[in-house]
Design brief:
Length: 112
């Protein structure tokens, strides 16, 4: 009916303000496990796709896990949040450090 179509469209939104989180946050020690999470407000619910900054497709879920990250994994990771009304991208930079760089960084920050 026209009324149900109006109500459906009225309460529908493209994804808004997609956000990404990196666990653990900040610089990452080579060999560590890293989890990237993407979320957004959307109606209907959004689908998510992870890409690297060179547009290499990684995964089509909101959580992307790297069980043992290495130096080659450093870079920008982009999450695309999308539903039938639109899409939005959000990104996070991962800086993977060797153990020597990690110790130096911790000393500079006064952590050790």
């Amino acid at each position: 009916s026209p009324l149900s179509l109006f109500i459906s469209n009225f309460f529908s939104d493209p994804p808004q303000t997609a956000s990404v989180s990196l666990i653990p946050p900040g610089e990452v020690l080579e060999g560590s496990s890293v989890t990237l999470t993407c979320s957004s407000d959307a109606n209907p619910a959004a689908s998510y796709t992870w890409f690297t900054d060179d547009q290499n497709h990684l995964n089509a879920v909101n959580i992307y896990h790297l069980p043992s990250i290495n130096r080659n994994d450093s870079g920008i990771y982009v999450c695309k949040s999308e539903n039938k009304h639109g899409w939005i991208n959000s990104s996070v930079h991962i800086d993977v450090l060797s153990s020597g760089e990690w110790i130096k960084s911790c000393r500079i920050k006064g952590l050790i």
